[in-house]
Amino acid sequence: MPPLSELTTPENLSEDTVRRYRDDGFVHVPQVLSAEEVATYRAAAEAILERDMEIWAGGEDGGQVEVNYVTQAWRKDETLRALALHPSLTGIAARLAGGALRLYSSEVLVKEPRKALPTLIHDDEAGLPMDGLSLTLTAWVALVDVPVERGCLSYVPGSHLRKESERLVHMTSFEHFRSAEEVWPDFPWQLRVTVPLRAGDVAFHHCRTVHMAGRNDTDERRIGHGVIFMDAGATYLPGVMDEYLSHMHPGQPLDDEKLFPLISG
Ligand code: SIN
Ligand code: NI
Fold this sequence. Notes:
The model has no long low-confidence stretch (mean pLDDT 94). Helices cover 20% and strands 22% of the residues. The protein has a seven-stranded antiparallel β-sheet. Strands 5-11-8-9 form a four-stranded antiparallel β-sheet, with no helix packed on it. It has helices spanning 15-24, 35-52, 73-76, 78-84, 87-97, 180-183, and strands spanning 26-29, 54-55, 68-70, 101-111, 119-122, 130-131, 137-142, 153-155, 193-194, 202-206, 211-213, 222-231, 235-236. Bound molecules: succinic acid (SIN) and nickel (II) ion. Succinic acid is lined by residues 67, 109, 119, 138, 211, 213, 224, 226. Succinic acid binds next to strand 11 and strand 12.
């Protein structure tokens, strides 16, 4: 795609892009961040990875892993907080979703050069400790160029609209995970759209959209910032990786403004 003459903003995002997001459950939005912003956020991501990087425990094969990450990055670092709450990111998310959202979480997501495995085929709904999901979506912000060979994401168009019997709706343990094929027998025959991103581009996907990512076969780290915006009315439903919510009781609204700020659309 040739460089755009201007950045994409909530104001100039086309109606066609919104419609494609609603139909497909994902959309590529080019050039949300300027080159200067990318440099600032990438430096912050690299610094937090030095301090706080965790290794995905699901790794097999002699220590090879899919993704290394920093959870709750926006709560740990002021610059990444500014990225998670960047008015272009939040405004575009709100236009795509079409309703009120709160910031739920953000993670720095890394695939190390030459050794990262493909990211497992999944959708995000089952892993989110919350009830009342209908608009919830992830903004995957590319902080480096992510061509296909560096492990960009692929998506199954329209999979966010499949019926409940074809979805893994909720997990309270990773032992409950089931493969896409087990849960959705038609999965192997679905189209998959692979979406390479330039640094500063953002790919948005709905929490029920089936997605995956490739290996990193290049000599450079793949660095992204995955920001999840949830339905403003979502409530707590005990799930996986939710120890930090253990002070909450099931059914309690996730509406503490400090932990889950409302975003302005
Ligand atoms: C990845 O960054 O490889 C996976 C991100 C996601 O599952 O949303
Ligand atoms: Ni995911």
